[in-house]
Amino acid sequence: MFVELFTYVMAEYSSNGNVVLIGQVTKAKSNHKVEKATRLLRNQRFPGNSDVVYLGNIASAIIAALESPDTPEFIELPAYNEQKWKLKTVSGPLSVTITSDSYWGFGLLTSGYLNVIELDGPQSVISRLIFDLVASSSWRPWRFKHIRSARKYMSKSYAHISLESNEKTWLNFVDLCKKNTTEMIEIMDSAIRNVEKKADAIDELDGWSKNRAEVSIASAKYDLNIAKEALADQNLPSVERAIARIEASLIEANPDNAMNEENSGSVIDKSLETIRFDEDLVINPSEDQTIPLVDLTEAE
Predict the structure, then answer these.
(1) Is the dihedral of CA 42, 47, 51, 56 positive or negative?
(2) Residue 41 half-sphere exposure, CB side, CA atoms within 13 Å?
(3) Cβ atoms 25, 137 nearer than 8 A
(4) What DSSP assignment string belongs to 136-204?
(5) Cα distances (Å, whole numbers) of residue 91 to 63, 70, 77, 119
(6) What are the tens digits of pLDDT across the range 87-129?
(7) Model pTM?
(8) Taking a C-beta distance cutoff of 8 angstroms, is the pair 37, 49 a contact?
């Protein structure tokens, strides 16, 4: 039941789309390389034939936030300017292309660089990526160090994007992820109340204990508060772990499942008390082919 409700909510935000975001680079280090033969991104200790590349804090954070991404490949290699490049990677249904370009001061300082981020995939995945990027950052990517130069760059290279619309797009995806997560928490809240009603209406049930159900429901309520606090702290992984614990508690507490009572002993179906060989394998039909099944699960 809970998985179906969760899937329904996610479907509301799963429509595919192409999004372009532009962000201010604040830091860049020479701790990455590009392998010349394959154009693939490598770490600074890569032993093969490679050149240094300044990846920058935005690109580094995006790649770190992706779930099992392909090794990023450079579409445009860095030349004499090691911070000017273009790369692409794919993570599940999401395609990510990042362009690093200078927009102020001839690219002599890191503050004169920006990243153009092109995201193609489900809105739910994009919103989660943007939320994680913003939540884990000490800066706001849509705020540029050199506003006039950033405005001129966008009007020249991306006429359909303005400083205002760019900021709005960033914030819209952050809000979309918050809304999505809030709805998941509300679904869990409703599910807890429904299971609690069922548990209150039943005293005892074969294979189900009311006392154990009450403990599980109390645990689910506790984790619900954890999920709400984690969302307020913008910690989505903690929210997801809390929701997973809630689902497990409710499955155990739900009388419909009747599976939370430990068996006092293993019950063996009468038809399985003896096991016979397949008739095709019988060597001597005159001998009893019955093998007694001994239950060793009982305490000695």
Answers:
(1) positive
(2) 24
(3) no
(4) T-SS-TT--SSHHHHHHHHHHH-TT--HHHHHHHHHHHHHHHHHHHHHHHHHHHHHHHHHHHHHHT-S-
(5) 9, 6, 21, 11
(6) 999 999 999 999 999 999 888 899 999 999 999 999 999 999 9
(7) 0.77
(8) yes
Amino acid of residue 121:
G
The set of residues, in sequence order, having a beta carbon less than 8 Å from that of 11 and lying 6+ positions away, is none
Give the whole-angstrom CA distance, residue 218 versus residue 196.
Answer: 10
Give the CA dihedral 22, 26, 30, 36, nearest 10 degrees. Answer: 10
User: Where do the H-state alpha helices sit in 12-136?
Assistant: 57-65, 123-135
| Cα angle for residues 35, 39, 45 (degrees, 5° grid) | 25
| pLDDT tens sequence across 58-71 | 999 999 999 999 99
**Rounded Cα gap, residues 126 and 243, in angstroms:** 21
What kind and span of H or E run contains 91? Answer: strand 85-91
Tokens of 209: 């204990």
Q: Using CA atoms of 273, 278, 279, 281 in order, give the dihedral in degrees to the nearest 10.
A: -130
Using alpha carbons, select from 116, 129, 45 the residue that is nearest to residue 85: 116
**H helix or E strand, kind and range, residue 10:** helix 2-11
Q: What are phi and psi of 116, to 5 degrees?
A: -100, 115
The pair phi, psi for residue 152, each rounded to 5°, is -65, -40
Q: How far apart are CA 102 and CA 153, in angstroms?
A: 9
